[in-house]
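User: Quick sanity check before I run a bigger batch. Here is a single chain. Can you write out its predicted 3D structure?
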Amino acid sequence: MEPIFSIGIQSLWDELRHMPAGGVWWVNTDREQDAISLLNQTVAAQDKNAQVAAIGMGHDLRKIIELDKEQGPDRIRIFTMPNQNNGLYFFTRDLLCSFEPENYLLILLCANNAWQNISVPDLQQWLERTHTWAKYHKCSLLVINPGNNNDKQSSILMSEYRSLFGLASLRYRNDMHLYDIAWWCNEKGISARQQLVLNHHHDRWQLAQQEETSVQPRSDEKRILSNVAVLEGAPPLSEHWTLFDTNEALFEEARSSQAATLIFTLTRNNQIDNIARQVHTLRRQRGSGLKIIVRESQASLRATDERLLLGCGANMVIPWNAPLSRCLTLIESVQGQQFNRLVPEDITTLLSMTQPLKLRGFQPWNVFCDAVANMVNNPLLPADGKGVLVALRPVPGIRVEQALTLCRPNRVGDIVSLGDNRLVLFLAFCRVNDLDTALNHIFPLPTADIFSNRVVWFEDNQIAAELVQMRTLSPEKWAKPLPVTATEKKIINAEHDGTSWRRIPEPLRLFSEATERTS
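Assistant: Done. Predicted structure follows.
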């Protein structure tokens, strides 16, 4: 009969504790001391005759493992592996050189952030190969992985249910340990989406509530967790509403939700990446029952930013100009919904999809063509929505180099180049109907006063065809920007207030040599 091992939290019920031979289980921890404590308690939880081997990645387990004479196995094999990627890649091969792992419990204690520099395909290949190896040799492998970015790690592992029999996270929050079980599969069945509160006393892990003896699904569908700014000063609308001062406090509370409505607020453009990561983590770890809404309180979202938030798992983005009454109606409209769009396991895929062009301002002609071609040929971006290519020819009497001094793109992804007496702009993720608004932001003077001719391309095939023509332009016809001196930088002293360009007043002191003498 094949052995059944146990993770070292004795008060857990069997569905969340047993690890039968032939599978791989994975537990992420925020802190290294929690990983070491879990390792010791897992060793102590095994029978006297159990066969156990512990492998330390960059750890000397002889100084870490504490054997108890009254509990745990009589003996344990200890191995050390280098804190290098090759140590992981040859992990199973090296073990077979030392002993036959059949009917063994293998515990791998990873180094801090050991997997952060390993690509997702390599991690998936390692899991698949290790799962096959454990099944063939009829042994159990428990991977304990400490690290400070385990939200990202857990999001990647959420789709590896074919290679992992169990995935859980042990998080430390506000003097409290939360044990999040994404899923746990053994001879007792499958349990998923469970969050338990653990106590840690005298190096022992146990459930905070001993009276819980069975897995009970929770329903919080009527609950609404919201940033306080969403209600614009109004009190909570019912007993189901809970208000938070910050998005971070809302995020921490939402990590235990199953089907609640979560409403984040966005006031500045620099909050987008952080909110996107929070939305992605919640959607990947807490499932499709959550209703996640982002309300824009000030005009700060571009089309690409909204696409990013929706791609990370938000059900809806409410624009800044929607009044509170309209906002509440939209919140009501998502009740009962199940999120069914695909969310990539790695958020960097979404970031590269919506922010692929990291250039801004003037670029040489060949660099400009290559950058736009990369955008057009990016399969992750929506068709005919990658941006607008504009060719502008200056009016007679103005050189194209002089027109460039008036061009001030301030968005990342807006690039410009000079060639064949034309100023060519590419505005990333700009819609063609917003082109005039975008040009008014870029040029402090009306474009009709600067340019006599304008040609626009906005479909992918149109832009690709024009790029073919642009690449035929010989380097002799490329143009360079005029050298800018300190005096020339102050020729146009203006700023854009969101509607139009306004000159900034400069104080001038009027005096004469005669008045200075008399004074």
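The chain has a mean pLDDT of 85.

User: Great, the batch can go ahead then.
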